[in-house]
Write a structure and sequence with these properties.
With 220 residues, this protein is α/β, with parallel strands linked by helices. It has helices at residues 2-19, 36-41, 64-76, 79-94, 108-114, 118-125, 150-157, 165-171, 187-198, 214-217; strands spanning 47-51, 54-61, 100-103, 131-132, 134-135, 161-162, 175-183, 202-211. The termini are far apart. Residues 113-215 form the Phosphoribosyltransferase domain. Residues 133-153 are annotated as: Disordered. Belongs to the ComF/GntX family.
């Protein structure tokens, strides 16, 4: 019976691979959602820097297969990509001082378009159930950040994040780590740090899945 079940399971997987072929979201390798080589890129060693005096640790650079994996997650919200990216985020967090992780939420525009928050999916893939900042729709400048310069991103992000009132009492005075999926210009995580300090928290670091190479981030 057990042998028959294994045979049936293998047959069903083979049939499914023909009807709905699976390919790695990072490199396109067939028959696997995230291949071992792409997983290894997220755990090979973090990218580190100081951002306004705070340690920023990312699992990898936002380039090549890692960029493709992030894009695949944002497009499909698949569990395999979330787990792979979450493993990298967990390692980045482990290198920072012990603190309460606080999530940077996706933009309202992105949430409406996708119907899910990829940052939250990655956090769950890392085994986290973090507190989260909230977007303040009454502040800042709306629209996408993609076509803006660094200075424009800073102005657009200013005042757009707040810590919900229900979290202020529990987090005030405590060390916290800002958690995001991708850090590009740094405008969003800087705003997150500002919002947390305004709520009485003590940011001690920033953790991310990926960091855009600074030569690119500096150009906008």
């Amino acid at each position: 019976m057990e042998t028959g079940s294994r045979w049936l399971g293998a047959a069903l997987r083979e049939a499914a691979s023909v009807l709905w072929p699976v390919a790695c979201g990072g490199c396109g390798a067939l028959d696997v959602a995230v291949c071992p080589a792409c997983r290894a890129l997220l755990t090979a060693g973090p990218v580190r820097e100081l951002l306004d005096g705070l340690p920023l640790v990312a699992a990898a650079e936002y380039a090549g297969p890692v960029r493709a994996l992030v894009g695949a997650l944002k497009e499909h919200g698949a569990a395999a990509e979330a787990r792979a990216l979450g493993a990298g985020l967990a390692l980045a967090l482990a290198t920072l001082p012990a603190a309460e992780p606080v999530l940077v939420p996706s933009s309202g525009e992105g949430m409406r378009r996708r119907g899910f928050d990829p940052v939250a999916l990655v956090a769950r893939g890392a085994g986290l159930r973090p507190s989260a900042l909230r977007r303040d729709r009454s502040a800042g400048v709306g629209g996408s950040q993609k076509e803006r310069t660094v200075a424009e991103r800073e102005r657009a992000a200013r005042g757009t994040l707040v810590l919900p009132k229900r979290l202020r009492d529990s987090l005030a005075g405590r060390p916290v780590v800002v958690v995001d999926d991708v850090v590009t210009s740094g405008a969003t995580v800087r705003e997150a740090v500002r919002a947390l300090r305004a709520a009485g928290c003590e940011p001690v670091g920033i953790a991310a899945v990926a960091r855009t190479p600074r030569r690119i981030a500096a150009s906008g």
